[in-house]
Design a protein that fits this description.
This protein is of the alpha+beta class. The chain has 2 domains: 2-142; 165-383, paralog of FGE (formylglycine-generating enzyme), CATH 3.90.1580.10. It is 30% helix and 13% strand. It has helices at residues 2-13, 34-53, 64-67, 92-106, 116-142, 207-215, 227-234, 275-284, 292-301, and strands spanning 165-168, 171-175, 191-195, 198-201, 246-249, 252-257, 260-263, 314-320, 346-350, 366-368, 377-378, 382-383. A 4-stranded mixed sheet has the order 10-9-8-11. Strands 1-4-12 form a 3-stranded antiparallel sheet, covered by helices on one side. Strand 6 and strand 7 form a beta hairpin. Helix 1 (2-13) runs parallel beside helix 5 (116-142). The radius of gyration is 22 Å and the shape is globular. The N and C termini lie far apart (53 Å).
Amino acid sequence: MELYQQVRTQTLALCQPLNAADHELQAAEFTSPLKWHLAHTSWFFETFLLKPHRPDYQEFHPLFGHLFNSYYNGIGQPFPRAQRGLLSRPTLDEVLAYRAHIDQAMQPLLADASLQPLIELGLNHEQQHQELMLTDLLYCWAKNPLEPVYQPAIQHSAEQTTLSWLSLPEGIAEIGHSDSVFAFDNETPRHRQWLAGGEIASRLVSNGEYLQFVEQGGYQQPQWWLADGWSWISSLPPEEQQPFYWRQHNNEWSAYGLAGRQPLDPHAPLCHISFYEADAYARWAGARLPTEAEWESAARLFPQQLQQLFGCRWQWTASPYQPYPGYRPAAGAVGEYNGKFMCNQMVLRGSSCATPEGHGRITYRNFFYPHERWQFTGLRLARDTA
């Protein structure tokens, strides 16, 4: 299966610019060391494919099933997430050997048609971790005064395109995945939703536009914030009451990213904001966030007119992460993949500059807690017309 080799190779390619110590970092409980990601994505194939479907399979290490389980309580007690950074052993070389062991053991299963859906899930799971590897690394490196550089800066257009508003008609829209190509279970079933009508912005909010909100005191004005958002932002030190990784020095703004610290590009799309910040800015701008149904309908209606839909920034929506009508998680422990997180989180749509190819699809539902902003998150505005 060619795709298996491609995905597994790409994961290792992301590690090429790094040294062994970079793989050990865990600066916060919500991040994981890159070494853990390398092992966990292999553990997935071992747990859900090799052990059930290869009676002759020999484990690489009897404790790896405990160390690299993430949250699948149906399988066993995972090693505490907050302590993954303490796992100096196994070494990086041992984890790479573990990956090679899994890849070799998987070869006889790759041609089994009955296992293709589960293999495909494992590969898409690994691609999700490829993005997490970059965002986790960025968060950890941001704690280092040296502010390391992972890759060269991406050059944006010197000019910003004019924002225009596209009309969303009132009526019933079909939402969700129904094609034969792969999708996660939280994208199904396809169903109908009522849209009240309105307008959606043709592009994402830029750094320059959001900077006006910052410099006009938006972070000190509670009228723009949800109560939970105001409590959250008020609890942060002043230097964090602005988009994540932004800094002002001698009246000049900069932002830290995978290309290191760069002068703030006013034309580039805003990045690293929480749902609370996105919602507050939208109110300040006389607009609102789109619902996920509005976003998906707009993406189907205006695939050419809507700019920066994919490959740029995850876009916060006004929709809580809940199951679609008729949703049923898969049976067994693999059913814990999405369903048990459908509480207290918000949906993001689109995809980011760190998202692997193929994950930027119209029905994809990303989700994070409303205060989280270490991902490549931005916003697209919507507004009512009545």
